[in-house]
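Here is a complete protein record:
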Amino acid sequence: MTQTLEIEISTDKDKLQRDKIYQFLSEDAYWSKGLPRDVFDRSIENSLCFGLYLPNGEQVAFARVITDKATFAYLGDVFVTPAHRSKGLSKQLMKAIDAHPELQGLRRVLLATAGAHDLYKQFGFTPLGAPDRMMERHNKTAYQKA
């Protein structure tokens, strides 16, 4: 018998455990190591953020969406803390993001990820259909201190 974990998923930024999120992103996440705190704070303020909480109030997962709420969104900084992985929490978080009313009817949602492709495929993500039409400007030293 599978036990269902009672969780809460919220977009209330006042509930976010920012120090915990910042620690993970700046120290553990391969995509954002060295992230300066002021950059992190601005990213939270200017994004639609999703926190996943256990019944005791502990935040164990996070994701944020950058969007115009009309045509386009970028999904980023998705993570579940290591102690709570393999419990289906990332799927529950993605279901909440997918169902959010401000993210309906968008023409395109992008994400960049080195892993969890099987998870994202369940929500309609595919490799770029026309990678020759996509470009990026990547500042690899953006988080280095002057």
